[in-house]
């Protein structure tokens, strides 16, 4: 099983043009093993098969990596849940500082355990509602995978974005209606179509910046 998952991850990252070393791939698979273990008791994700976790959680989270440009970035993963896309991104880029924010104590308990077991020194876990969160440093990138529609996402996190920062929202089908409803003081910098090995459904990354 472990060998099959390792081969699946290695092939997937190669297909997407990513360069993850053996240690990073090992940590990603350890994260899947931990998620599968906790999921039996806490029902963190509807996906229960480790093979689908590799495609739908690891590769799906890593797909926008080439678009997240910059070194030493501060990244906020809003509504992180069980840690996607934040944990895979933090493993892939140890130079980034990643904050996982979720108001659900059960989920952040898992996140803290994952950070501890995987030795992710560049990850911080915060149990807080996003509108009440007031960190000392704003974020270069604010991302989410299944948090809210675009206008709500922007509205709730505006106070957390650095001056030259951007919102990066992972979506399924092209979100025409959500884009049309964005407030006038922000604009869409681009929408990237993401090809994720093992996922037939459409995936898009919507990049939003202050107007």
Structural class category: alpha/beta
| Beta strand count | 7
Q: Work out the helix count.
A: 7
Topology-level CATH name of the domain at 64-210: Rossmann fold
Main sheet attributes: strand count, strand direction, barrel closure: 7 strands, mixed
The top level CATH class name of the domain at 64-210: Alpha Beta
Please give the CATH architecture of the domain at 64-210: 3-Layer(aba) Sandwich
> Please, what is the average pLDDT?
96
Superfamily (CATH H level) name of the domain at 64-210? Vaccinia Virus protein VP39
Strand order in the largest sheet: 3-2-1-4-5-7-6
Tell me the distance between the termini: 49 Å
What are the segments in which pLDDT stays under 50 over at least 5 consecutive residues? none
Which descriptor suits the 3D outline? Answer: globular
Helix proportion range: 25-40%
Order of helices and strands: HHHEHEHEEHEHEE
Radius of gyration: 16 Å
Content of β-strand = 15-25%
Family: Belongs to the methyltransferase superfamily. RNA methyltransferase RsmG family.
GO cellular component, one term: cytosol
Binding site for S-adenosyl-L-methionine: 79, 130-131, 145
EC number: 2.1.1.170
């Amino acid at each position: 099983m472990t060998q099959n998952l390792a081969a699946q991850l290695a092939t997937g990252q190669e297909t997407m043009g990513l360069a993850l070393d053996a240690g990073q791939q090992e940590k990603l698979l350890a994260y899947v093993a931990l998620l599968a273990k906790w999921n039996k008791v806490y029902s963190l994700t509807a996906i229960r098969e480790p093979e689908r976790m590799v495609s739908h959680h690891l590769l799906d989270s890593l797909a926008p990596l080439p678009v997240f440009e910059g070194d030493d970035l501060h990244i906020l993963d809003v509504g992180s849940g069980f840690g996607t896309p934040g944990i895979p991104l933090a493993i892939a880029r140890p130079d980034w500082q990643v904050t996982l924010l979720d108001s659900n104590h059960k989920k952040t308990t898992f996140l803290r355990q994952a950070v501890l077991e995987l030795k992710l020194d560049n990850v911080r876990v915060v149990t807080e509602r996003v509108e009440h969160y007031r960190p000392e440093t704003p974020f270069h990138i604010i991302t989410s995978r299944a948090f809210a529609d675009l206008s709500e996402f922007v509205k709730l996190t505006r106070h957390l974005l650095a001056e030259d920062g951007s919102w990066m929202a992972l979506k399924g089908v092209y979100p025409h209606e959500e884009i049309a409803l964005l407030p006038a003081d922000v604009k869409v910098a681009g929408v990237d179509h993401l090809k994720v090995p093992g996922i037939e459904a459409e995936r898009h990354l919507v990049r939003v910046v202050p107007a």
